[in-house]
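Protocol step 4 of 6: structure prediction from sequence.
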Amino acid sequence: MITREQIPTVLDHPVYDTDGNKIGDARHVFFDDVTGEPEWVSVSTGLFGTSESFVPIHDATVVEDHLEVPFDKSRVKDAPNVDVDAGGHLSEQEEHRLYEHYGIDWDTAWQQTDQTDQPGQAGRAHSNTNETTGMPRADYADTGVGGDDAMTRSEERMNVGTERREVGRARLRKHVVTEEVQQTVPVRREEVRVEREPITDDNRDAALSGPDITEAEHEVILHEERPVTETETVPVERVRMTTEERTDEETVRGQVRKEHIDTEDVEERRDR
């Protein structure tokens, strides 16, 4: 258990769990109404420290500049939310729920506190003690406990940041499709054409060079062109994926608590 003298070294300093993981920063210390000893510490948790979780401080230890509690980080962050009233007290129901969450027996906790009472104190029968069960409520110690008469007023501030998370994936996939193509090309072919020419003085000698009358034949080879197709693979373009960032604006709303300090007039009574 920490002492009152160690409170300044605890408040606003890191709080670590049993595995050395940082849970958050200590914000407030709550005292037992009867013994006046520290009983609970509230630790800022959640995103940007916007939530506070209560941790028993009975078995906590101060190590250098931080506080170590005998509970793991997940249990502390999952502790029940409690509502501290205007007087800075934990109600019996809230304290009971916290004890159950941390696996601390209610009767055992009562006995441990009763044994630490100073002489002259009747167990837990204190003016701030619940009359039904005898379990005390915890006094509230604000940040900056000192010996002066000043009261520290605190308020919560909402810190807004951003976190990067995966929202989807995109991929390139190449597949093959077959298409029908059409193209017109000119083709040539040979055809037989019979030419006749009369006998003239110019060709008479060629015409009479052969036998007078005989059978003969003459063969001509005909040709034609046909379209022939073949395919070849050629690169046509390169495709890649890139990402670009676009900045939008989103409005974030939240609730913060503030402490207000009021003054009350005290009527002085004078004996005359």
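Step 5 (inspection) to follow. Confidence is low (pLDDT under 50) at residues 116-143.
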